[in-house]
Amino acid sequence: MKRILLLIAKIAIGLFLILILFILAVKWNVFGKIYTEDELINYKNETASVVLSENRVVLGKYFDKNRTNASYEQFPKHLIDALVATEDARFFEHDGVDTRSLLRVIFKSILTGDKRSGGGSTISQQLAKNMSGRSSHGFLSLPVNKVKEIIQAKRIESIYSKENILTLYFNTVSFGENIYGIESAALRYFNKKVSDLTIEEAAVLVGILKANTYYNPKKNPKNAVMRRNVVLSQMQRYDYLDKKTADSLSEIPLKLNYNNLTSKNNAGHFLTYVKGEASKIIDSINKNSKTKYNLEKDGLIISTTLNENLQTYATDAFESHLSVMQEKIRAQYNSNASQKRALNTLVEAQLKQMKIHPDSAKLRSRQLVFNWKGLETDSISIVDSLKLENTILHAGLLAMSPKTGAVKAYVGGIDNQRYAYDQIFSQRQLASTFKPILYATAFESGKQPCYYLDNDSIKLSDYKNWNPTNADRTFGGKYSLQGALLNSKNIPTINLYLETNFTKLDTIWSRLNFSSKLQNVPSLALGTTNASIYEVANAYSVFANSGKTTTPYAIVKIETASGDILYAHKNQEPKEVLSKRTTAYINEILQNAIARGTGQRIRNQYGISLPLAGKTGTSQDYTDAWFVGYNPNIVVVSRVGCNSPKIHFNNGLGAGSSLALPLVAKTLQKAERNTDLKKELTASFVSLTEEERNQLDCEDFKEKTGVEKFFELFKDKESSFEKEQEKAKKREKRKEKGFLKRLFGN
């Protein structure tokens, strides 16, 4: 018996020594690092950077882990009560380890297999796990990780107050869906700050901690309600709630205000654009600073110029208008035989390019399909999928301040999840939105608004007998420069181009910050060159800003979480690229385009009263539709078209006034109903001088006189682009030399 007792004693001492050595090995970091007290003092969460609108609304976040830190003062008392009652009832009594709970787990969970006894980990131990994670050590994984968490919890309790521990805990814990921290969870599930959570909402979020997928209130609402009621019951058990209150709260149905800024965000393309700009700024800061900042981990606050209300109005306009036009273009391609053939030919070419056999392309499979009600999964063939994709109308809209360059609304596409490509920077044919640039060049060259241009049919022999026509198929008579521009007449515009020095046009094009190179061809007059929405907005801001150019920008400042300003935008000195006289003429003419020309629907149909000038644009065969509306306080540009220029409307539904103008009109229509926005967007154009008014005082159109008609009998019906340009050069030289110099020489 003595020998047996001695053996048992030796085994016990041996096991005890092994246990001591094991604990020491864990403490000495043999099984992985444990934070020291100094490291805990300087512990810093990886925190998402937040992007704010100009009125401080959260637009989105950039993160490795979606976490926004909150302070203890922001936590409502019932949130803390819910956590303590559910996760660690003796939190305010123990020093990191609850011995009673630990013994209960050892004897009930391990020895008797009773899993209902709970986990035994305190909030401090859970915090330790959240901070360090768990590592794998084979069969020793559980004891190693538990001992590490106990040691870490003890250290946490030795340097942090209970309030600090709760703050760290709430800011590190996962709530599923790649969101960390109570502030991010409150925003995701209830679209509110943590300080505004009600008792039952706090109980839902604390309930998620048990199993963040099973109790996810979005995915599993029944489970979430059941767990919420368990939390409320625990709060009653520990006297944080009376029975009547707990029972009444348990009867409340689950009410979410789900707000996933990652999956559905009306500023998604803008956030991508801002991230690119912010990354450049941060890289520049890091090059010149000892402290290095990370956009996805350091909780930076990025304040932007975007007006959240105007952005919402713009995205609403996209949905209400494009959903209707989408149905119309699909109907056209379903009913028109020649259009069907064109679509089938395009799809066949795409299948060939993708090396997909036609038979395989007819097999059905589950695919994501876009419509304006949202992304849907449907059983559909590759052929049908391509037909749907090719007939989708893509669009972009940009609004900016012409005075400062501040971006006020930015819709880069119809769905930032499905279609990440940013339409704001897509290069497409400018169509008639190019014309004001040509007319501005003419004014800069000395022509006046009442200079008349021929409207007779023309044919250019050296360009395959190109015979351009006006949109309304009319010709004859003469249009003044202002009449031709406000009515967007093609033939007079081509005649103006033939009279304009190309080098001057090219110079002004460059001054307006366009990136593409102009080709000296007659079709350029009708806007066959490419440009982006971004470039057009920037160029038209010069008209709105009396000839001065500004640089578009979106970031106002970047701050650290503690409020240190890392970057602040400084407005650049505006540069004059056009004369005030030229922009006064353009603005007056394009105001008339809104009043009685191609843009009058914005007044007649949508009832917008803001001072506005505007220009429509329709590419050849209706491939792209443009509209620009502006005044001295705002420039708004929209463009709509399918990805392939081979797919388009075959009638006036694809015109700028029908397809692109309504996006701007519907946006401004709602903006006018917002008192603050209306005040911000309302601005009168610079008043014309008496001389400028006189120069604009003429008829838009007039018939030719008998004498003019007589001389036209001797005029060639056919000409060439080269001859016309040569004539223009001679006229330019004669003009430069002047009458007296021609008569008397030097």
UniProtKB/TrEMBL annotation:
GO terms for molecular function: penicillin binding; peptidoglycan glycosyltransferase activity; serine-type D-Ala-D-Ala carboxypeptidase activity. It comes from the Bacteria. It is found in: Cell membrane. Residues 397-636 form the Penicillin-binding protein transpeptidase domain. The keyword Ubl conjugation does not apply. Residues 720-739 have a biased composition (Basic and acidic residues). It holds the Pfam family Transgly. SUPFAM superfamilies: beta-lactamase/transpeptidase-like, Lysozyme-like. It catalyses: Preferential cleavage: (Ac)2-L-Lys-D-Ala-|-D-Ala. Also transpeptidation of peptidyl-alanyl moieties that are N-acyl substituents of D-alanine; [GlcNAc-(1->4)-Mur2Ac(oyl-L-Ala-gamma-D-Glu-L-Lys-D-Ala-D-Ala)](n)-di-trans,octa-cis-undecaprenyl diphosphate + beta-D-GlcNAc-(1->4)-Mur2Ac(oyl-L-Ala-gamma-D-Glu-L-Lys-D-Ala-D-Ala)-di-trans,octa-cis-undecaprenyl diphosphate = [GlcNAc-(1->4)-Mur2Ac(oyl-L-Ala-gamma-D-Glu-L-Lys-D-Ala-D-Ala)](n+1)-di-trans,octa-cis-undecaprenyl diphosphate + di-trans,octa-cis-undecaprenyl diphosphate + H(+). One of its GO terms (biological process) is cell wall organization. Residues 720-746 are annotated as: Disordered. Residues 60-236 form the Glycosyl transferase family domain. Keywords: Carboxypeptidase, Cell membrane, Cell shape, Cell wall biogenesis/degradation, Glycosyltransferase, Hydrolase, Membrane, Multifunctional enzyme, Peptidoglycan synthesis, Protease, Transferase. GO terms for cellular component: outer membrane-bounded periplasmic space; plasma membrane. In the C-terminal section; belongs to the transpeptidase family. This is Penicillin-binding protein. It comes from Bizionia saleffrena.
